[in-house]
Amino acid sequence: MWSMNLKKYHVLALVSLWMGSIGESFAQQPAKNPGYTNKNPSYDGIGKVYMGREISFVMGFEGMAWLERRSREQEESVSLAIKNLPVSESSVVADIGAGSGYYTFKIAPKVPKGKVYAVEIQEKAINYLKEKSQELGISNVVPVMGSEKSPNLPTASVDLAIMVDVYHELEYPVEMLASIRQSLKPGGKLLLIEYRGEDPEVAIKPLHKMTVKQAEKELTANGFKLVQNGQFMKIQHFLVFEKVGE
Fold it and tell me: What's the pLDDT score for residue 86?
């Protein structure tokens, strides 16, 4: 009888381990039904809704002049954002949705012993980033062709991922956040810089702004916790999240 019970115990233990590994696997992957719904598109929206928020159109690389405008520093306190980045000189940073590299090439000197992955999904942007890196003589910027669902970065390779006025445009936020989590090192962080959705004085199209409440709701649902809510930028949030569940 004891022998039979022991065999039964071994079977149950194996089943338990198998179920545990399945559970861990699911925890690391986005849900099969991530909760997207659809509606008639709003002005400047794609009609796809996540957690009550309609996703906006992506600004094409043709809008580069807006990213590089001379007034941007004064309007957006960019230098303060760069100064407050949670990085060291050897950090690996991923600028996801790098565009023209406005932030990328300002971050690169802060991580002289590290690197900056400049992630884009538009080939024109990738080519521009490569050319500008050569023109400026910057060797620690690495342009990376991402996709709508992944930044295509090595696993556990990144100390800080940043998205500057990008998150609200992600067509697949659940899948993208899962991939970003995978690319972050233990203790790695994700920074969202977004125009303040709570402030009607911020003259940006509504779908291109986000509230802290909405950002925290979405990021919490995808394995992150808010660890810093910077209040030093003029019209944007500076929200630092850390991945949890490891």
Answer: 97
Q: Please state, in angstroms and rounded to a whole number, the distance separating the CA atoms of residues 126 and 142.
A: 10
DSSP string, the chain: -HHHHHHHHHHHHHHHHHHHHHHHHHHHS--SS--EEE-SPPTTEEEEEETTEEEEPPPPGGGHHHHT-TTHHHHHTHHHHHHT----TT-EEEEET-TTTTTHHHHGGG-TTSEEEEEES-HHHHHHHHHHHHHHT--SEEEEE--SS-----TT-EEEEEEES-GGG-S-HHHHHHHHHHHEEEEEEEEEEEEETT-TTS-S-GGGEE-HHHHHHHHHTTTEEEEEEE--SSSEEEEEEEE---
Distance between CA atoms of 217 and 94, rounded to whole angstroms?
Answer: 23
Q: Which of 221, 222, 67, 227 is nearest to 160 (CA)?
A: 227
Residue 184: φ, ψ to 5°: -80, 145
- Return the residue matching tokens 């990738």: 126
Residue among 155, 151, 131 at smallest CA distance from 141: 131
171 touches 55 (CB < 8 A): yes
CB 184 within 8 A of CB 158: yes
Q: Which residue type, as a one-letter code, is found at position 152?
A: N
For the chain (246 residues), the mean pLDDT of every run of 10, in chain order, is 34 35 38 83 96 91 74 91 97 96 97 98 94 96 98 98 97 98 97 97 95 98 97 96 87
pTM: 0.85
